[in-house]
Every structure is written in structure tokens, then in C-alpha cells.
Write a structure and sequence with these properties.
single chain, 103 residues, alpha+beta, three-stranded antiparallel sheet, two-stranded antiparallel sheet, 2 helices, globular
């Protein structure tokens, strides 16, 4: 397994994992609940991480880069999910709460 994405914000990591899995890339989430030990170990060592199988790493890396470049060009307007009525950042293509795609 290889690390493909890490970030301090658990919600961003969860959204990226959903994005990868919606494109057929299964993943493993590591350090999901490790923030409770922050301060006892270096802060970046407890950030949530997305790991993928070795053979899917290049595809996952490309998808992460694609998602990050989309974030920089996305509109600045948040959107509401029509299914669960959750507010989502403009950079999300899927609802972070229920994974409904942006329409």
C-alpha cells in the first residue's frame, strides 16, 4: 500500500477518499481518529491519510492532482445538497454528508 493523500482537515481527506472511490479506486483511511494524541507526537504524524494498493497508486495520484487543480479553478459559491440539504464547499463535487453528486 502507498500513501496518496494526507491533510490536516479530516473532512477534506474524507471528501478526497469519496472522490477516489467514486472513480473506482478503493482506499484505506489511516489516522482517522488520531487527533486525540496530538501534542504528544508531531502534529503532522496524526493527520488522516489515504492509502491505496500499489497497483492503483498512479491512477489515484492522477485523480488527487485532478481534484486539487479543480479546486483552484472552481467557483467560490458553496452549494446545498438536494438530498440531505447539507451545505458543501464549492470545491466538492460530492456531498460530504451523503455522497450525492453536485448537479
Amino acid at each position: 500500500m502507498k500513501l496518496v493523500y494526507t491533510q490536516e482537515n479530516r473532512f477534506d481527506v474524507s471528501a478526497m477518499r469519496t472522490y477516489l472511490e467514486s472513480h473506482g479506486v478503493p482506499s484505506f483511511l489511516k489516522n482517522e481518529f488520531s487527533s486525540s494524541i496530538m501534542g504528544e507526537v508531531p502534529f503532522f504524524s496524526v493527520w488522516p491519510e489515504i492509502w491505496v494498493a500499489d497497483e492503483l497508486f498512479e491512477q489515484a495520484k492522477r485523480l488527487v492532482e485532478e481534484a486539487q487543480s479543480d479546486e483552484s479553478t472552481a467557483s467560490e459559491q458553496d452549494w446545498f445538497c438536494h438530498t440531505c440539504k447539507e451545505n458543501n464547499p464549492a470545491t466538492f463535487e460530492l456531498c460530504w454528508q451523503c455522497a450525492t453528486p453536485l448537479k
